[in-house]
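Whiteboard transcription, Tuesday session. T.W. wrote the structure tokens on the left side:
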């Protein structure tokens, strides 16, 4: 993830001719804007690019945000670190557990989290992605730091009425929409 930092050159410094590894800069002898990629070390001591941190938020953190978190961590956990939370955390939706199990993804041991706990703890995210309706998305707190807010609207599996099999089939469609959105999001960050 690229982060923007403003650097003022020391008096008399010539930033136009200075080497900037992994940076982009604009020089006019008054300032340089430097974009820096953050790196982390692996056990072998090799530097690797820092994972992009994503928080998925829905109302109860019981289905949509749980599925999005699981998909992002499963598909691209080497490049992304996903978590999920709710505005009013509830209990894990058994429909979500079942449809994820269909794809070999076990979320049955997940717990629901409060978005406000992440906020109070000062957690930093590159992206906060709301996966509920627009009105509830507006209730999400504004996180500090360089955070991009994105909204993906999906139907709520808890609102689906009817027999279990009908509700399960409808939740599978929602699951597939979420998976498709996650894959599109991942594809914005190609492997280098």
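and on the right, the sequence the group agreed on:
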């Amino acid at each position: 993830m690229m982060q923007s930092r403003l650097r003022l050159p020391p008096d008399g410094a010539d930033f136009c001719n200075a080497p900037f590894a992994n940076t982009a800069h604009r020089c006019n002898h008054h300032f340089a804007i430097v974009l820096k990629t953050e790196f982390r070390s692996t056990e072998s001591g090799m530097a690797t690019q820092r994972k992009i941190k994503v928080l998925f938020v829905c109302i109860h953190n019981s289905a949509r945000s749980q599925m999005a978190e699981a998909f992002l961590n499963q598909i691209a956990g080497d490049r992304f670190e996903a978590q999920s939370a709710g505005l009013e955390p509830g209990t894990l939706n058994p429909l979500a557990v079942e449809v994820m199990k269909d794809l070999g993804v076990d979320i049955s041991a997940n717990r629901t989290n409060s978005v406000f706990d992440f906020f109070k703890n000062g957690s930093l995210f590159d992206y906060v992605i709301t996966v509920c309706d627009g009105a509830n998305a507006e209730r999400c707190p504004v996180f500090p730091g360089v955070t991009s807010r994105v909204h993906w609207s999906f139907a709520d599996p808890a609102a689906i009425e009817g027999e279990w099999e009908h509700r399960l089939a409808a939740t599978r469609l929602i699951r597939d929409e979420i998976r498709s959105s996650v894959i599109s999001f991942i594809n914005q960050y190609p492997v280098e």
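Someone added at the bottom: Helices lie at 64-76, 94-102, 115-120, 134-137, 164-186.
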